[in-house]
Amino acid sequence: MHKFTRSLLTEWRRLGLPFEGETVVAAVSGGADSVSLLLAFSDLGGRKKITNELIVAHFDHGLRGRASEADAEFVKALAMELGLRFIGGKGKIATRGNLEQNARRARYKFLERAATETGAFAVVTGHTINDQAETFLFNLVRGSGRGGLAAMPPIRALENGSETLLVRPLLRWAHRADTEDYCREMNVEPRKDAMNEDPAFSRVRIRKEVIPLLAELNPKVVDTIAQAAELLAEASNSEINTEAEHLPAAELAALEDPALRSVVRTWLGNRRGNVRGLTLKHIEGVVRLVKSRKSGRVAELPGGERVTKSGGRLIFTAGGEVKEA
Amino acid sequence: MHKFTRSLLTEWRRLGLPFEGETVVAAVSGGADSVSLLLAFSDLGGRKKITNELIVAHFDHGLRGRASEADAEFVKALAMELGLRFIGGKGKIATRGNLEQNARRARYKFLERAATETGAFAVVTGHTINDQAETFLFNLVRGSGRGGLAAMPPIRALENGSETLLVRPLLRWAHRADTEDYCREMNVEPRKDAMNEDPAFSRVRIRKEVIPLLAELNPKVVDTIAQAAELLAEASNSEINTEAEHLPAAELAALEDPALRSVVRTWLGNRRGNVRGLTLKHIEGVVRLVKSRKSGRVAELPGGERVTKSGGRLIFTAGGEVKEA
Predict the structure, then answer these.
(1) What is the pTM of this model?
(2) What order do you get walking across the sheet with A155-157 strand by strand?
(3) Is the pLDDT of residue B105 over 80?
(4) Backbone phi and psi for residue A232, each to the nearest 5 degrees, phi listed first
(5) I need a surface site. Which of A320, B112, B132, B176 has the fewest CB within 10 A?
(6) Do B232 and A140 count as a contact with CB atoms less than 8 A apart?
(7) A 226-255 residues with CB below 8 A of B?
(8) Residues of chain A with C-beta less than 8 angstroms from the C-beta of B201
């Protein structure tokens, strides 16, 4: 198995995500990041490592005429070649206001619909460590609260209040160069987005001018900045001690959804010693428990383990016999 | 009064520092930042606004031969012209290891000695908002814990365990350009440090290449980054609620010195409605109270106000009659 594919598998496990029986929508722009993600998932499917149904979704923002259409055709052809279902969307993006933001909003709306219509539990995207570092710098320069400097989480709700997850399985380990190398080794030439080269966008200048300049001072600056963002994200969740035997239900319930899931996952990992066999459904069961007003309810975990709520606390009980789920 | 001088006076008051009867050592390199600070303090002295004894200290790192000597002569002549006592120091800086760090260590040791010998309660330096932003970027790029991204405080102990304060009264409002403008308007031409122009130093490249590039994306980027640093500094002190009626003594005692003083000052400001009349001696009295193991002790504040420690808490009591100190 290619190192890239293996790293994806490891991260998928670490995130406690399901390996089978689910549907996943891959958001594929046609660029190296999302294409590498698609190729690696397809490889893991072929090897029966992750057998969820993979659906390829592409949104044509229609902003670059013929080039946009060619991107859509490229992604569709790639999906066919891999034997995967393809869902295309096309939108008219308002060019008033913030073009990037409008495009993003239309794209997420399309992805949400694609996930809902296919019953997918998650949309996966090809965000890399480079995106993490670039986002940090973008928000630092633009000015934003402490939240803007905290790392993007690898899992969160796709939109506010959405039941669909946004999962970024490359975010914590893959560099953009890794995705380009992997595409090359798989003999697939990804598309280049002209908007990714246009210095009218601050993000482009951060990627093409600021980061290279900083890299002259520290060649590992992308990792260093991503690490700083992670530290700041941890700090903002740090009020709840995931090393504790019990979790305070009321404080948990006050957390936003992605942070809540992340705290639950970390705490369960600490109680169990690992996150093996923990699927999204288990995490969701505990989240429901947190949000329920009743005491005494139970969330079942693999191997007879369970979490109960009692006296305002979440309590973990080990199973009599631990089986792998 | 010049706007620069007035801003310095306002900040000095806001920091709760003494206006008379104390000695202050001004660390003056000869550059625009420290020269502007010296000129403004001298102006405030002439106007009887701050009548502390001002002593000019200059450390010759001896790293640039004749230029170093010329800097020292310039600062000495300026001190004489202003009728201020001058203390010069000269050191042999180890060129092994980190030159900037070695130079800084020798300089701080000299300043500490100058303060101790003259009975000064504080050393003041000319750090500006630009230094704040540059330090943030320097630590971000180099990689450092969360502490490295938190803003430099305007007041801290000069060295670990030192009784002398390091006060940076320009840090929160003055840009480097303001210090240059002020020197020009006062008809003083500051010295230029060749080391501040040498691109072999990361700090120099951050100042001369990174910040100008970021300023193309946001002309106010220096303020924006300094603000981010402030937010992160607040976050790391945020466990103690300075809006509360009482402060928990044990948690306070666990704080490092500069953070402890800052929390005490903020809390007193909240309880009193302002920090008028609060001098360093008052803050120190409360700090001693925090560090004392005995209960029932009292720290006196202006106008009969007092802070007592009881039941592990600090309690503020308003005076019967509030006078300005």
Answers:
(1) 0.77
(2) A85-90, A53-60, A23-27, A122-124, A165-167, A155-157
(3) yes
(4) -70, -35
(5) A320
(6) no
(7) 227-228, 231-232, 235-236
(8) none
